[in-house]
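Tutorial sheet, problem 5. The three components below are modelled jointly, 1096 residues in total.
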Amino acid sequence: MIDIIYRIGHFVLITVFSMALGLLFMGIARKIVARIQKRYGPPVYQPYLDVLKLFGKDAITHGFIFDFGAIMALGGVIATLFFIPLGSWQLYSMEGTVILVIYLLAIASLGMAMGTVGSGNPQASVGISRALMQMLGYELPYLVILFALIYRYQTSSVWGLMQAQAGSFLNWNLFAYPLMAAVAFVVLIGMMGKKPFDSMIAPSEIGSGPVVESGGKYLGMLLLQKSITIIIELALFVNLFLGGAENILIFTFKMLIVWVLATMFGSLFPRFRIEDGIKFFWKWPLGIAILQALYIII
Amino acid sequence: MLTNYIFIPIAAAFIAYILNKRNRKAGAVITALVSAYLLLSLTALYGRWDITQSFNLSLMGYKIDFLLAVNPLSWLFAVMTAAISILIALFSINSQENFKFSSVFNLNFLIIIGSMIGIVFARDFLTLFIFWELMTWTSFYLISAGKKKMAGKAAYRYIILSAGAAYAFLMASIFIFQQTGSFAFDSAAEFLVANSPAQSIMLLLVISLPFIVKAGIFPLHIWVKDAHGNAPKEFSPFLSGMMLKIGIYGMIVVFYQLSFFKIIENTIAYRGLPLLSYLFALLGAVTIITGTILAIRQEDMKKLVAYSSISQMGYIIIGIAIATPLGFSGSMLHLMNHLIFKSTIFLALAAVIYRTGTTKMYEMGGLIFRMPLTFAAYLTAIIALAGIPPTNGFISKWVIYQALIEKGYLFLAIAAFFGSIASFMYVFKPLSTVFLGQLKPQHQNIKEVPLLMKIPMLILILVIVLFGVFPGIQMNIINQISGYLGIETVNYTLYSIQGANGAWNSLLIFNIFSAGFIIALLLFSFAKKSKLVGLLDTYSSGEYITDAESYHYAYQYYRPFDRLFDNLAAKSLTDFYETLTKNLVRSGEGLRRALAAGKLQNYALYSVLLFVILAAVGWII
Amino acid sequence: MNNNFVKGSWQEILDWAQNKSINMLHYCTGCGAIELPPTMTSRYDMSRFGIGPAATPRQADLLLVTGYLSTKTLRRLIYTYEQMQAPKFVVGFGSCTINGGMYWDSYNTIKQLDKYLPVEMYIAGCMPRPEAILDGLLKLKKMIANGEADGYKRYEENLDFYHQNQEAILGEVQRTQ
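Model answer (structure tokens):
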């Protein structure tokens, strides 16, 4: 009994921590982009206020599927969180978690896709169709990288891959396989929907894409989902390439560095059209990933 | 008595035909009863792997044995056939009310069921051939009974490919008969191993031709799209679910029981795998990619799912061809799982077609408000197809990935990943265009399907989740099959499977997913309650929209992606075959004019008559 | 007593959060909208006050009626306002919304926005410079934090008054379905 309560407490703690950290990161990103654009920008705690306000607003719904989609999105992403080691916090360590994480993220996107398309607005459908096409673009190089890493270290759990880089910091995959790390970084920018890969939430083109009919608590839940997704993707990158960390503070620091770099990168470019985006991902990132994978295997 | 299982359905077929002429529903009821009987008696047969039956025939100095036997592999296929037939029969009791050809449908369907069981119980080439041809001809009639105009042409293409490959199979088996004096698999296997490898490999490749055609492996997959798209809507689940799998069954027989792997063991190898096996795996990979890319372009939902079936067959062939225990288990798991979730998808789509009368996705929309159970079935099935936990589709895909990563086959793995990620795209398309979106005015009054059509869908949803959480149930029979075929078994418990670098625990995943879901639900319920508004009250830059038709994004849903492959898809393989045939006919024309000035059929008739007369008189033979 | 106290303080917290984070609907109705880009971009940076753009009315809190409002636009604006969710605020921008401004004798524009939509505050000028806009919006934020910005409640309570005025000038008005 105590064990169950302890576990539930653990769940809630990790969830709240990731949400808080993710929202903070989103605020930091807005500040950085503002400074790059030579203005002040909102304070770093702005996203907390946004979420609080959104949960206090009314909202409309278009039926059961609209609600269900939002819950499935947030639920899926919370479930994914429990399989990624944050620092030395690891709730469940089992094999196969790398591929599992990718697919659980897919539940979340499927949930969001279903919910937002269920609003009946064609702009949501357009946004989702673009998002899915782009997902095909960036997932392929990413899975090749994962394939190579799993083959190299003969373990398919994130914890295992993290442990395999223990020792000095020269063991990190960043230095052992720098090309793969570069490709993974570009894929990270695609995953988070930053420019130049943010065609799916284009505000003027398609009225902000999938979230066109979401207001109030739906938008709040999708913001929370976004914040946890940021943490998951950053944590995955840090665990796979920067060797994880022993305690949560160093881990957060590493995530912060990657996040700042990704934000700066992502604020410079204009937007890719979707087919150009897919072509881009399948040309250089996929090519480099395949070369690196072949090098590892042979 | 193994012949019971084969001849009872065939006899019942004629009874069903006659009864159906009186009452439209009778045929389907008889099909359901016969399938239920088959399923129950087959479960009684479980574990008795030693039952055999044989018939002898002496004809003109030749002694032929017809052998039937049960083994784990055959048992599994027979059970799958019976199970899916019950569900389809239950479904078709209501959905064939207004179907003109329902008697012919049930007649042929029952014969197909009987002949499929005959195929899997057969232990020699001739029995296999007889039942194979029976199945091919009856399915030809069945496909051409579809409502669309193209049904006849689609069936025609199907029969030409199937029959041609089957006759090649017959010739190869007669050659083996001449060398060994018997059609049986065991003696053929011994002969092939002892023979020169080159000749054995040629023979086995010819023997595997009809199986490659049936399984829809590139480059012989051209019949699948049209056959699925134009067949009667209740037959498509069976086509995709079982008939493609019979091809896989044949490939397993060729690979393991006819010792293909043993013969090619000492040929050149690529990373430990003989090159010929790798060739099959590569064909599977190309099938995955082709099927997926073509599926994304389709506007007709049945053709989309047909292409998706081809790409899943590619997964199964890869798993079998790489000849590792994990690969084989993954393929068998995927085989069973694909049957379950593809049938669910097809049944859900058949329900939609039953109510709306059209298969084009852009003519529908918003059907979730009228057919919620159908939507739930479709949603669960696509979650399984895309390979998302906690459904069974994820487990089979995970095992295949483990098999590929374990050996380091990079290009096969890329094809597998591509197929999996792109499958999100093509399964989401019907979901978004048919079930979500704006409800068209002409569909305002449609209702959910009747109870008898809901039951199969409900059962299948439960099975998908059950097998997803407890894969041990499937692994039980799969390990028996592995043992029977001489492959190493894979460790498993009720809810976990041992992979290459660690075990997979599905109960845990299910629990954690539920926990995450509950947290989100709590957060959602504590916020303010939201107001329900209609579909037409949506953001449209301030304009009032009145017609739902123009506000539904469905046509060419993935146009940017299709644009990337427009050039490639324009080079259709079907056109290649058609041009080849035309050129062949034209070149033959010249020869024909030189040799036989009149109708060639008359010449053939005269030759056959002469042969028969001379044989009767005794001058020949 | 306790319940009201809890509700009251929760409302205060929500009001405080609302004032710190306002989403402005990007609906440029008239020529006054040309002063918005400078306000939003680097020089006069509106986002440091927490005011950001929103793409659709479902996500928006603030409707800025910038400049003159022709009757054609009024119809769409009313629909957009009704699609927004409470709490929502309307700010009249420029003299045209106060008394008709430059187009005081036109047959096609409205002369006083307050008759058709509940306005929290007007920002006078033709057109107001970005500094004036920021001044106005900061005052609006104070009003929201104090709970004085209840235009949406006024709309609900005096629905007949507003509907009457709208129909007087537009003829028949389609409501949300």
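Marking note: Chain C touches chain A through 26 residues (CB under 8 Å). Full credit if you identified this.
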